[in-house]
Amino acid sequence: MLVYLNKDWEDEYGGHFELWNRDMTRCVSKIPPRFNTMAMFTTTDFSYHGLPNPLTCPPDRSRKSLALYYYTNGRPSSEINQGLEDHTTLFRDRKGLTVDAGMRKFNALQSTKDFVKDLIPPIFVKLGKKILK
Predict the structure, then answer these.
(1) What are the residues whose beta carbons fall under 8 Å from the beta carbon of 79, sequence distance 6 or more?
(2) Burial degree of 118 (CB within 10 A; 0-12, 13-18, 19+)
(3) Where are the beta strands (DSSP E) in the chain?
(4) Higher-confidence residue: 126 or 118?
C-alpha cells in the first residue's frame, strides 16, 4: 500500500505510480501522487508497477510517499515466477525502453533479508529464528 503525502502536486510534475499488464506492453492504471491518495495492490512476480518516468517537478519539490507491506508465509504457485523464487526485486524493460543502469545495479545488491540480517545483532537473529520455529 502506498499513501502519498504531496500537497499541491501538479500533474505536470509527473511522478505517477503506474501498474502495467503482465507482458509489459501497456500501462493499465496511472495514479497521481496527490496528497492523501492511496494505491493498494497485491505484489506478485507479475504485478509490474513503479515510477518509470523521471520527475519534472521544480528543484525545491520532492515526491513523498509512505509504503506499507504485509508479508505472508508462502504464496499460490500462480503468483510465482518459476526459477526466480529467491529474489527481492525484478526490473523489467518497457517495450522499446531499457531499464536505467543504476536500477540494474540496485537489482544486483544482496537481498533485503541478508541486508537486514547484517544490521541486526546476531543474538536477535537467533532469537527470531527460534520464535519462528
Answers:
(1) 42, 44, 45, 46
(2) exposed
(3) 2-4, 17-20, 27-31, 38-39, 49-50, 65-67
(4) 126
Domain ranges of the chain: 2-86, 100-133
Q: Which residue has the cell 493499465?
A: 28
Number of residues that this document lists for the chain = 133
Grid coordinates of 22: 503482465
pTM above 0.85, yes or no: no
Q: Are 86 and 111 in contact (CB under 8 A)?
A: yes
> Is the confidence at residue 83, as pLDDT, over 90?
no
pLDDT digit string (tens) for 16-70?
A: 999 999 888 899 999 999 999 999 988 777 788 888 788 999 999 999 999 988 7
Q: Which residue has the cell 526459477?
A: 83
How many whole angstroms separate alpha carbon 67 and alpha carbon 2?
5
